[in-house]
Amino acid sequence: MRLATHTLPAGTVRDRYRLEFLAELAAVPGPHQTRHAAGILTHSLALRSAVRGTQVAPLEEAMTAPTKPLLCRTNLHHHWEWAHTRDGERYIRCARCLKEKDSGAGGRWVGGVSMGGGYTGP
Known about the structure:
By secondary structure, the chain is mainly alpha-helical. The protein is built from 6 helices and 2 strands, in the order ααααααββ. It folds into 2 domains: 2-57, no CATH class; 70-102, no CATH class.
């Protein structure tokens, strides 16, 4: 508990929290005391910020989810589907990452059976 409260400002605040943590720990059954003490220790920096009145941004905010699924980003697998432009033209795109499939046939896609096969457009 000394280590957990060492990050707090010296004086009555530190002493008060140390006594509270020791009282909590005394109420926890023996086999679970180590886990409870570790939990208190891992939250000691957040407690210091709260006591001082400063805001520390949580780690989760800094982490962002990738915009594309992993298989799309690595170009290993796309989930191709038919889509329409605003003017009614049909094209093929990935349903997950919205990548458009390049037909390689001058604007006409001649694909395999999985997408209806042999579509050559209007």
